[in-house]
């Protein structure tokens, strides 16, 4: 029988995501996971820890790391057409929407297979992105403007409309 992918879905509740995630593991994998957690707990207790908190207080380092982790989202900036760097001279301003943020890398079958192919040296010198990146999924309507010499231009796919992890 085929197992469902282990990647978490974005739109369902956290409890449903983890339930679905654990259902995709075999009984042996779950036993191995529980054994590792019990061993980690035992080590913490033997090293002088009185209890192992479920949610430890975040230190300043972890707070900084969490602050840097911003989800992939649409942002906007008002700029002149000249500032876009497309070679047009114009004082007109446009609303430039762009995608910014980080993407959580969920391990999928593709990632496991890619790692295996790289370790077996089937894939060597090619540049391969190991994690998804924040990119436009759709673009706004075309942008039209007059340049400094009263010539009319239209630029397509300039501003993002929707962002996602690709």
UniProtKB/TrEMBL annotation:
Keywords: Disulfide bond, Growth factor, Secreted, Signal. InterPro entries: Cystine-knot_cytokine, GDNF_fam, TGF-b_C. The keyword Protein biosynthesis does not apply. One of its GO terms (molecular function) is glial cell-derived neurotrophic factor receptor binding. GO terms for biological process: glial cell-derived neurotrophic factor receptor signaling pathway; nervous system development. The keyword Secreted applies. It comes from the Eukaryota. One of its GO terms (cellular component) is extracellular region. Residues 61-166 form the TGF-beta family profile domain. Pfam families: TGF_beta. It is found in: Secreted. Belongs to the TGF-beta family. GDNF subfamily. Growth factor that supports the survival of sympathetic neurons in culture. May regulate the development and maintenance of the CNS. Involved in the development of the neural crest. Might control the size of non-neuronal cell population such as haemopoietic cells. Acts by binding to its coreceptor, GFRA2, leading to autophosphorylation and activation of the RET receptor. Heparan sulfate-binding is required for signaling. Homodimer; disulfide-linked. Interacts with GFRA2 coreceptor and RET: forms a 2:2:2 ternary complex composed of NRTN ligand, GFRA2 and RET receptor. Also forms a 4:4:4 tetrameric complex composed of 4 copies of NRTN ligand, GFRA2 and RET receptor, which prevents endocytosis of RET. This is Neurturin.
